[in-house]
Write a structure and sequence with these properties.
With about 180 residues, this protein is mainly α. Helices cover about 75% and strands about 5% of the residues. A hairpin with a 5-residue loop joins β1 and β2. The mean pLDDT is about 90.
Length: about 180
């Protein structure tokens, strides 16, 4: 047992020294990030296990259309989960409202408390969220192809509608601007 205790203490000292040297005086939650990485690895492993147990064949390579559909659906769902006003109750336990940020989106910051900061960063970062969303959509496409493609098609249509709404708003502003000058 004493050897295990010394080994654990050495790992702990190494981790603290690494965190201190890396942070350069800033508060960086490396331990939380390690937990998030382990959580993602377990999440991906669970999906992989489900796909293998059900005997679903893996495609030799992804079809280009599926990559495009997954990309756009991932973009839209990641923003919906991490930025939309309507999903703020999901983020609220881990974040603090700062203000509006773009059409129907919020700017929130991760709560600094231990255990909430890393989840708050993940929950408010569409880039971070997209890793989880793309993994989920890919697994869904392997396990339940038709409903997943239908959901991805809906998310892609929503992204297209958002782009059209923004383009329309910009067009209206451009047309109204010359009228205001006269």
């Amino acid at each position: 047992m004493p050897t295990d205790s010394r080994l654990a203490r050495r790992f702990q000292e190494l981790f603290h020294r690494t965190r201190r040297n890396y942070a350069a005086g800033h508060d960086r939650p490396l331990g939380g990030y390690l937990v998030a990485m382990a959580g993602f690895a377990a999440y991906a492993a669970a999906w992989t296990t489900a796909v293998r147990r059900l005997g679903r064949p893996l495609p030799e390579r992804p079809e280009p259309w599926d990559v495009v559909l997954t990309s756009v659906a991932t973009f839209r769902l990641s923003r919906l989960l991490s930025k939309a006003s309507v999903t703020s109750p999901l983020r609220a336990p881990f974040t603090r409202y700062v203000g509006p940020q773009g059409p129907a989106e919020l700017h929130e910051e991760a709560r600094p408390e231990q255990g909430k900061h890393t989840v708050g960063e993940l929950a408010t970062c569409p880039f971070c969220m997209s890793v989880w969303v793309a993994t989920t959509l890919t697994a869904g496409r392997l396990l339940w192809p038709r409903p997943t493609r239908t959901a991805m098609g809906t998310l892609t249509a929503l992204a297209g509608a958002d782009a059209l709404q923004l383009a329309y708003s910009a067009l209206v502003k451009a047309v109204e601007a010359p009228e205001e000058q006269t």
